[in-house]
DNA sequence: CCTCTCAGTTCCAAAAAGGAACCTTGACAT
DNA sequence: ATGTCAAGGTTCCTTTTTGGAACTGAGAGG
């Protein structure tokens, strides 16, 4: 399966992965959420080669995750900003950061802390239910086919 | 930057990406959460080539995300199961699924629905604060250096 | 024996990534 | 007018990673 076949799969993971399922893309998005916006800044922070960076930024713009907006005329220069669609990736990045904090932090401790403006405390992200607001873990979830399902998606066996 | 340099970065995203930042790995994990466990099953569902699958499974086992457990003797056969560390990736997969459901679902609708056993309803995952339990969006979060920080990680500019 | 299943491994061609140099637009200084 | 600088790319060539398909090995079952 090639990249372009991925986005046609009847699976939300496959479709999302067709946009962000690449190590550089994920690192670029991390930097976007840290307010990095310019080509040279990404390059310096990531240690990515320039043509791969150009390629990934182009793809993210095409996917509607980033917008390429001019920040000066003469010479015309552009920067890359998260769109609303891109901002919606925040939970993905937070979940990734949290897993890294818990399972991959060295003894130096976590590199970054997150403060919740609303309550003023340093917090951990918790996944919760949109209906009852209770915490959700892997074992609390029953997966069922939805309207866009292909029957082959589910593995069969009940949970 | 090569893969093996990634895990040494002082960034939880980089470290997590060194384990799961590959499209096949993410799709393998999706299937793991759908109770797929055997080599042939992964291959059939994913359309991945066999040696890449073998490679990714080996890496996930080495990373402690999956465990290779025998399910029959004579001939000895193994299956791959999520460890607790692997189960902790559930929020990452849920966040990815949800983004795909919202931004990439065709008009057929979402392929899978998730029911919260505790309350019995189909739900969407919401990221919330471990301290006050309130919802958390990108703009609610203030990022600060933690004990394991390198100063270069933050982009500078206040949020 | 012969064939089948599962779980891999091997080999070769094709695609993607790394590295370094080059290009373009315009500002600013000499 | 010539030279240098900065930002944001592009080009070219080499090394790495994938894709695809065939082969291996340990039993089971006829």
Strand content of chain A: 15-25%
Helix/strand class of chain A:
alpha+beta
Quaternary state reads: homodimer
Sequence stretches where pLDDT stays below 50 over 5 or more residues of chain A? none
Number of helices of chain A: 7
Please give the radius of gyration of chain A in angstroms: 19 Å
Report on this model:
Two copies of one chain form a homodimer. Helix content of chain A is 40%, strand content 19%. Chain A has seven helices and six strands; from the N terminus they run H-H-H-H-H-E-E-H-H-E-E-E-E. Chain A has a two-stranded antiparallel ribbon. In chain A, strands 3-4 form a two-stranded antiparallel ribbon. In chain A, a hairpin with a 4-residue loop joins strand 3 (112-116) and strand 4 (121-122). Chain A is globular. The two termini of chain A are 28 Å apart. The model of chain A has no long low-confidence stretch (mean pLDDT 93). Chains A and B meet through helix 2, helix 3, helix 4, helix 7 and strand 3 of A and helix 2, helix 3, helix 4, helix 7 and strand 3 of B. The structure holds a DNA duplex (30 and 30 nucleotides).
């Amino acid at each position: 399966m090639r990249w372009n076949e991925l986005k046609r799969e009847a699976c939300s993971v496959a479709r999302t992965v067709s946009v962000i399922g690449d190590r550089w893309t994920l690192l670029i998005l991390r930097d976007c959420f840290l307010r990095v916006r310019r080509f040279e800044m990404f390059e310096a922070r990531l240690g990515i080669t320039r043509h791969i960076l150009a390629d990934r930024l182009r793809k993210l713009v095409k996917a509607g995750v980033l917008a390429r907006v001019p920040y000066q005329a003469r010479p015309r220069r552009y920067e890359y900003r998260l769109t609303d669609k891109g901002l919606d990736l925040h939970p993905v990045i937070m979940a990734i950061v949290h897993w890294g904090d818990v399972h991959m932090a060295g003894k130096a401790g976590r590199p970054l802390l997150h403060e919740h403006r609303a309550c003023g405390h340093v917090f951990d992200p918790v996944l919760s239910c949109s209906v009852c607001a209770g915490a959700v873990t892997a074992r609390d979830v029953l997966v069922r086919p939805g309207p866009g399902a292909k029957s082959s998606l589910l593995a069969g066996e009940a949970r």
